[in-house]
Specification:
mainly beta; seven-stranded mixed sheet; four-stranded antiparallel sheet; 0% helix
């Protein structure tokens, strides 16, 4: 059973940056594709970014393309989401997920809050 723990969220001003981390235990992250999702108050959870197990193919939502970067360090069993040029509309709880398929995730973290003030 893979357990995922996100960290790195917080309060930041618009235009600022944050780096989220997702650490895994109980399994080897290198076996999984990894994704980041977010959920804002009153909205459905939405896709943010994903990275294949090899790390050589990444995917981004149009809303974050050019501002966010997903990466992974399989040796550290950790996935990252570097978020630059943050906007108030990026405010949400961010979740990481692991799965055998890029579009279907089996394991989810508990989430970390990101708040961007204007």
């Amino acid at each position: 059973q893979v357990q995922l723990v996100e960290s790195g969220g917080g309060l930041v001003q618009a235009g600022g940056s944050l780096r989220l981390s997702c650490a895994a235990s109980g399994g080897t992250l290198s076996a999984y594709h990894m994704g980041w999702y977010r959920q804002a108050p009153g909205k459905e959870r939405e896709f943010v970014a994903a990275i294949r197990w090899s790390g050589n193919i990444v995917y981004y939502a149009d809303s974050v393309k050019g501002r966010f970067t997903i990466s992974r360090d399989n040796a550290k069993n950790t996935v990252y989401l570097q978020m630059n040029s943050l906007k108030p509309e990026d405010t949400a709880v961010y979740y990481c997920a692991a799965g055998a398929m890029v579009s279907s995730y089996d394991y989810w973290g508990q989430g970390t809050q990101v708040t961007v003030s204007s």
